[in-house]
Amino acid sequence: MKTFLKVIAWVGLLFIAVGFPLSFSSSSQLTNTGQLGSGVGFWLAWMLGIFGTLLLLIGGFIARPRYLWIGSIVIGLVYILSFYGIIPWWAERNQLAWLPAYLSPGLACIIGGTVMQRVENKHRGGF
Questions:
Q1: Are 28 and 85 in contact (CB under 8 A)?
Q2: Please, what is the Cα angle at 60 between 102 and 42, to 5 degrees?
Q3: Is 37 left (phi over 0), alpha (psi -120 to 50) or beta?
Q4: Nearest-CA neighbor of 52 among 15, 82, 88?
Q5: Model's pTM, two decimal places?
Q6: What is the per-residue burial (b if ≥16 Cβ within 10 Å, else e) of 63-83?
Q7: Per-residue pLDDT band at 127 (split at 50, 70, 90)
Q8: Cα(86)–Cα(5) distance, rounded to whole angstroms?
Q9: Which residues lie below 8 Å from residue 15, measured CB to CB, with a gap of 6+?
């Protein structure tokens, strides 16, 4: 069962990473042309991020894969950075209320990875 949950945690990381090309592409289009287009890249990356984060955190906290915390923190930072194009666009239109919703999977990955690292150190005798 633990092996299955470890695989689930790493698959969750993969789901989040699959959304990166979509959000980076939409951010690039928005900064280069000034037009959002369909905006579906941000939405799909967000949906994949939510699903992947759930898998990552459930599998990560139950099975505790050894180096998942590093991947979780890195993937959370890259997730947040992939939305670089939409933040100024929302700021122009006074719609920054969407910011916490869209960035929440990345923030959850960073916080979850930090907690996983602390728990791993505590169980292994570190500080």
A1: yes
A2: 20
A3: left
A4: 15
A5: 0.89
A6: bbbeebbebbbebbebbbebb
A7: low
A8: 34
A9: 48, 49, 51, 52, 55
* Residues 58, 48: Cα–Cα separation, whole Å: 15
The structure tokens 């069962």 sit at 1
SS (H, E, C) 25-49: HHHHHHHHHCCCCCCHHHHHHHHHH
User: Which tens digits make up the pLDDT trace of 70-111?
Assistant: 999 999 999 999 999 888 888 888 888 888 888 999 999 999
| Sequential DSSP letters for 45-101 | HHHHHHHHHHHHHHHHHHH--TTHHHHHHHHHHHHHHTTTTHHHHHHHTT-GGGHHH
